[in-house]
Design a protein that fits this description.
The complex is a heterodimer of chains A (158) and B (199). Chain A is of the alpha+beta class. Helix content of chain A is 21%, strand content 45%. Chain A contains 2 helices and 9 strands, in the order H-E-E-H-E-E-E-E-E-E-E. Chain A has a 5-stranded antiparallel β-sheet, with helices on one face. Chain A has a 4-stranded antiparallel β-sheet with strand order 4-5-6-7, with no helix packed on it. Chain B has 199 residues and is mainly alpha-helical. Chain B folds into 2 domains: 47 residues, no CATH class; 135 residues, no CATH class. Helix content of chain B is 55%, strand content 10%. Chain B contains 7 helices and 3 strands. A two-stranded antiparallel ribbon of chain B has the order 2-3. In chain B, helix 1 packs across helix 3 and helix 2 packs across helix 3. Chain B starts with a helix and ends in a 10-residue tail after the last helix. Classes of the chains: A alpha+beta (158), B mainly alpha (199). Strand 7 of chain A pairs antiparallel with strand 1 of chain B.
């Protein structure tokens, strides 16, 4: 005689559902965390209303960069002090030494997000954690002497 | 003609009077040449101002400009609250409330009677997630993802202050660092974070 098929199946089905209820969300949570390296560009820029930089090594920024900065900030001219391109491995930290006084650390985080830390003369000044989409600029900025300003622009290249 | 009527005449010109008052002013104008002269002068002045007022262009973006104003208002409110002996808390209760609501929702979700709905729903979400992952490997959070704008910021130095804002139009997130002892006060010149980012 065949046993009623309805007795064991609900138990098995219930276990399966319970397992799925836990495993599937865990998998789902793990997927966005899939790690990847990020290629970043960090630029130290000096903003001024003067037509030329006193340092001849400072070259004017590209036109599109200047246009974009002019839309947001009040300075007329912008000069590149330093530019560093670097790949930050997944879940690791990349250090961008932009000048003697200015360093930025970028950490690739789950999300995907980046953790950015700004150092001024070796001292930690600020940190931020955010998603960084392609095309977006993460900018640290501040005023400087004689109505000038400095900018650290970080953007993702890949 | 007294000052009150002069003001009433101005309001009449601007269309700000109730109908009954406007009718009364209109009736008085019929028999009052001085009032008619004043109305004529006011009308001319209004036309000239509307047609010749020079537009003012600020050197910054709209977000930059308004964030400064917002910051200034916030500072005034805080100063007023402090003067009244009622300092406003820096950390509103919204974050704990949200955390509590999320915890409640998760607790409900993982109640045994909810499991039968969870598995198929999770399966569907997983399929969508897999599809997104397969078709766009390693793609960062899109700019229209609300989570993308969730930014944590923290000032690590006691000597500096920081304000953050985002220019949506220019796709730029800015953290403005100021020296606390700097003679150029950030409140006067620099952007603030009151709208979207707070620290």
């Amino acid at each position: 005689m065949i046993a009623p098929s309805s007795a064991p199946l609900p138990v098995a089905g219930s276990r399966l559902l319970r397992a799925a209820a836990w495993i599937v969300p865990m998998l789902l949570l793990a997927l966005p965390a899939a790690a990847h390296d990020i290629k970043l560009e960090a630029k130290l820029i000096w903003g001024t209303n003067e037509p030329k930089s006193p340092n001849p090594a400072h070259k004017p920024v590209e036109k599109e960069v200047a246009d974009k900065l002019r839309k947001v900030f009040k300075w007329k001219n912008y000069f590149v002090v330093n530019r560093i391109e670097k790949t930050v491995p997944s879940r690791k930290t990349g250090r961008f030494v932009l000048s003697n006084k200015c360093t930025v650390e970028v950490t690739e985080l789950e999300g995907p997000k980046v953790g950015v830390k700004l150092f001024g003369e070796g001292k930690e000044l600020h940190k931020a954690t955010k998603g960084l989409a392609q095309g977006e600029w993460f900018t640290y900025a501040g005023d400087d002497k004689n109505d000038t300003a400095w900018f650290v622009i970080i953007r993702q290249l890949n | 003609m007294n000052t009150e009527f002069e003001l009433q005449l101005q309001a009449y010109l601007d269309g700000e009077l109730p109908q009954a008052e406007a009718r009364a002013v209109s009736a008085r104008l019929q028999g009052d040449p001085t009032a008619r002269t004043l109305l004529s002068e006011l009308t001319t002045t209004k036309r000239w101002l509307a047609g010749n007022e020079p537009p003012v262009h600020v050197p910054e973006s709209r977000e930059f400009y308004w964030s400064k104003i917002d910051r200034a208002l916030d500072r005034i409110e805080k100063a007023a609250a402090a003067a009244a002996g009622d300092p406003r808390p820096d950390d509103p209760l919204t974050a704990p409330a949200c955390a509590y609501a999320c915890a409640r929702a998760l607790a409900r979700l993982f109640q045994p009677r909810s499991w039968r709905f969870l598995a198929p729903a999770a399966g569907a979400v997983l399929a969508v997630g897999l599809a997104l992952l397969l078709f766009k490997p390693g793609t960062p959070a899109p700019a229209d993802d609300p989570d993308h704008y969730m930014t944590e910021t923290e000032t690590l130095s006691e000597d500096t202050t920081a304000f953050a804002f985002r220019s949506q139009r220019d796709n730029m997130f800015v953290v403005w660092i100021s020296n606390k002892e700097s003679p150029s006060s950030p409140e006067d010149e620099l952007p603030a974070d009151v709208d979207m980012y707070y620290q």
